[in-house]
Amino acid sequence: MGCGTGDYLRVMAPLVAPGEATGTDLSTQLIERARQLSSVDQTNLSFRVADVYDLPFPDASFDRVTATQLMLHLSDPWTALDEMRRVLAPEGRVAIAEWDWDSTCLAVTDRDLGRRFTHLLCDQMHHGLIVRELTWRLAAHGFEQVEVVPRVQISRDLGAAFEWLIRPATRELVRTGALSEADGTRLLDDLRERAATGRYFLDRTYYVATAVTGLPLGR
Length: 219
Ligand SMILES: C[S@@+](CC[C@H](N)C(=O)[O-])C[C@H]1O[C@@H](n2cnc3c(N)ncnc32)[C@H](O)[C@@H]1O
Description:
Blueprint: H1 7-16, E1 21-25, H2 28-37, E2 45-49, E3 62-68, H3 77-87, E4 88-99, E5 105-106, H4 111-123, H5 131-140, E6 143-155, H6 160-176, H7 181-196, E7 202-213
Parallel strand pairs: 1-2, 3-4
Antiparallel strand pairs: 4-7, 5-7, 6-7
The structure holds S-adenosylmethionine.
């Protein structure tokens, strides 16, 4: 669900073959791109435009449902969770993976600016703290065998996380006035300087929550 350009699903599809792997996303453009990027040889892989709140699939039609970096962007992730559960077969498994944004650990020379940036970054998202609620929410929404596993990712140099996350997020915070222009520039200059002198450090934790469908709700 919310597969974007389908990068993860292309890796997962061979693991479930000859079972079918279906990627869904709200964005027509991203689904079109996912189809373009996928090999015609992956015959068990398909993509479909769909809203996770209203999936165009019958009840109990999938053995597995997975959503990575989707829930935190939704205004009502728990309604989406019910919809994911609806399309899961009995004893079907859900896997949800999200970063915990408020514990982003970034080395910034001005520690107050660094702390402020982490909190502002988290609060830019609808649900930047969603992983902290996943365990009880999965149980409350009728799932069993709930497990949450952390995965730590450390970056020692500027890379995708700087280019696609820190830099654009800083610009957005400056645009909205949450961060002053001077602080935004100071932060990015500091990170570049730290990277150039081998002092860059970014550590983020990604949590993977898995659970199995139990009895239908209300029974
Ligand atoms: C941050 S991207 C994650 C993409 C991919 N899952 C990944 O981890 O690389 C979030 C995706 O959720 C999709 N999305 C947002 N709201 C959605 C909704 N209501 N239903 C389905 N997809 C949605 C967006 O179009 C976007 O592709």
